[in-house]
Amino acid sequence: MAAKSRWGVVLLALLVTACGSGTPPAPAAAADPVPLDLSGVVLLQRDTGHDDVVFADPVTGAVKTTLPLPGHDTSPSRFDGPADKLDLVSPDGRYAALESGGGVEVYKLDTRGRRYERAGAVAGFRNPRFGRTGGKLYFDNGQAVYSTDYPRLGQYTKEADVVPPDEPLDQRVPAWWPDAQGKVLTWKNVRRAGNLAYLTDSSGVIVYATYDDAGTRYYFVAALDASTVLLSAVTGTDAHGVLARLKVDGGTPQLTKIVDRSEPRIGTVAAAPDRATVLYQTTQGEWFDSPTTPGAITRPALKQLPAVGQRQLVGWA
User: Fold this and answer.
1) Is residue 108 pLDDT above 70, yes or no?
2) Rounded CA gap, 82 and 26, in Å?
3) Residue 16: which pLDDT band, with cuts at 50, 70 and 90?
4) pLDDT tens for residues 169-180?
5) Averaged over 117-135, what is the pLDDT?
6) Per-position DSSP letters for the chain, written without gaps between them
7) Edge to edge, what strands does the sheet with 196-200 contain?
8) CA distance 7 to 2
9) Which tops the pLDDT comparison, 208 or 237?
10) Were both Cys, which of 120, 145, 255, 282 would link to 153 (CB 3.0–4.6 Å)?
11) Model confidence at 103: pLDDT above 90
């Protein structure tokens, strides 16, 4: 009887050991974060102590994604006029750049933390702008334009000398532009047709233009097609913000107004990717949109955009 008891104890010990030595069940996998929606209208939101990059629905204005950005852009006029998303974030939204007092700060998106984190700096430069392809970030030092591979900051490549325009222009007008192929264009490449001064890329598409008409100077917003551009008047007799389309036909520029003088005046303008609609923000923070065709009717826009902090329109993703 004692022997049976001893064998029972041994058997029980073996069972306990066997059960305890088994592989424990794997912990449940952490759920992936909700994918970030980096499409729509892009805004730079300024609040106390930090900036946010906001992606909003272009129809309703409902905020889809807000990404904290630990910095402030110190260039006073970079987003005051017509701007492009590439002035702030990379084509895929994974990087951001701000001009600071000491140069250009570069930030990388932390998708799990849902915020931008500082990745490095480019000292002594200004006017950051991401290229459309190739992973390049462009900037200048007032004398020349340089680029760097923003996923791997470090080595700089000189792209072109800065060539100012023949006559003074509004301070919001840049002195250079990278085209879709990555070539940097300057005012050295300017072409003229009457009162129109413009630049074209290697495919012949207009990438920038200014136009003078009866004391009003119009500035480039976007190319609508290879020979037609959208312009905004910010100085002169139409200083309250006329939007117009200009077509170069046989070397003769033809201007057609889309949105006539507005009050309060138009502050910033961005064209939709399909170029069928233009969105603009007045200097009092009101939002409107309009088709880019003659006879268009302006409508209030972004009605669901919350009134939080100070927002600046910087483009359309």
Assistant:
1) yes
2) 54
3) very low
4) 666 667 888 988
5) 92
6) -HHHHHHHHHHHHHHHHHHHTSPPPPPPPPPPPPPP---SEEEEEEETTEEEEEEE-TTT--EEEEEEES-----TTTTTSS--GGGTB-TTSSEEEEEETTEEEEEEEETTTTEEEEEEEEET-EEEEE-SSTTEEEEE-SSEEEEEEGGG----EEEEE----SS---TTS-SEEE-TTSPEEEGGG-EEETTEEEEE-TTS-EEEEEEEETTEEEEEEEEEETTEEEEEEEEGGGTTT-EEEEEEETTEEEEEEEE---SSPEEEEEE-TTSSEEEEEETTS-EEEEESSTT---EE--TT----SEEEEEEE-
7) 191-193, 196-200, 206-213, 216-225, 228-235, 243-249, 252-259
8) 9
9) 208
10) 120
11) yes
Spatial CA neighbour of 280 closest among 93, 58, 100, 2: 58
Give the DSSP per-residue string, 235-264. EGGGTTT-EEEEEEETTEEEEEEEE---SS
Using CA atoms, how far residue 234 sits from 210, 241, 253, in Å, is 11, 6, 19
Question: Is the confidence at residue 10, as pLDDT, over 90?
Answer: no
Q: Which range, of 55-64, 98-107, 212-221, 233-242, averages the lowest pLDDT?
A: 233-242
Q: Binning pLDDT at 50, 70 and 90, where does residue 234 land?
A: low
Residue indicated by tokens 């290879």: 226
Q: Token pair 């905004």 is at which residue?
A: 232
> DSSP characters for 120-174?
EEEET-EEEEE-SSTTEEEEE-SSEEEEEEGGG----EEEEE----SS---TTS-
Q: Which two tokens stand for residue 300?
A: 């209030």
Amino acid 59: pLDDT: 92
